[in-house]
Specification:
13% strand, 10 helices, 6-stranded parallel β-sheet, two-stranded antiparallel ribbon, alpha/beta, globular
């Protein structure tokens, strides 16, 4: 296992298959507010980020005028309402082989932590739909609500390390489907950073962040370690 003691996995697009509904919902919220953005732009510039920050960043890229924080708050509020409705009415599954991977890693004494740019409430809804229990399927879940600064800051990974008394970041693996996930891992000095192609971004986009490796899906990690 290359000495890995902690594996930190992104949720949507990496371990959880929700067909990019979060980014489709970001796009809808922006369009409802009068911003004509494509899904491709949302995926490129919003993937992996705390969602209010993603909305603010995209608006900043396309708007000629500075947008006040109150408007961003309104769009973010609408996004959360729309996302809750979307998740309430859709099936959510894990990607094939992911639960087996978690079980395998945990059997080897490796802590498995999920982290996400979602808020805690949304993350918990996903866990409920998947019927995943902390302590049974994964060891912990850390969300954007748990830290002051979201991705690509290292804070979520550092919090996971602190919780499990892991001081050597070279013993930590971070995997995700976006450049921001990889940057987060590099900012935390993780020993392995892994991009996966099941979610938001392409191989070419992920390569710009120079991960340790890129896999077609997360379950392939079992054969690599």
């Amino acid at each position: 296992m290359n000495g890995i003691k902690l594996a930190v996995f992104d949720m949507a697009g990496t371990t959880v298959n929700e067909n990019n509904v979060v980014y489709k919902t970001v796009q809808k919220s922006l369009k409802d507010a009068g911003y004509d953005v494509s899904l491709e732009m949302v995926l490129e510039h919003g993937a992996g980020k705390e969602k209010r920050n993603a909305i603010a960043h995209i608006i900043d890229l396309i708007s000629l005028n500075k947008v006040d924080s109150e408007l961003i708050d309104e769009i973010f509020k609408k996004f959360r309402e729309d996302l809750k409705l979307a998740y309430d009415n859709m099936d959510v599954t894990s990607y094939e082989g992911v639960e087996e991977l978690f079980k395998h890693l945990r059997s080897k004494g490796i802590k498995v932590v999920l982290n996400t740019g979602y808020d805690q409430k949304t993350a918990q809804k996903l866990l409920q739909k998947l019927e995943w229990q902390i302590g049974e399927h994964v060891d912990d879940v850390i969300t954007a609500d748990d830290v002051k600064v979201g991705r690509p800051s290292a804070e979520m990974i550092q919090l996971a390390m602190k919780k499990f008394a892991i001081e050597d970041a070279s013993k930590v693996l971070k995997a995700g489907d976006s450049v921001v996930d990889i940057e987060e891992g590099k900012n935390a000095n993780c020993g392995l950073t892994v991009g996966v192609l099941t979610g938001a971004q392409t191989r070419e986009q992920l390569q710009t962040a120079e991960p340790s490796l890129i896999l077609d899906n997360l379950s392939a990690l079992k054969e690599v370690l």
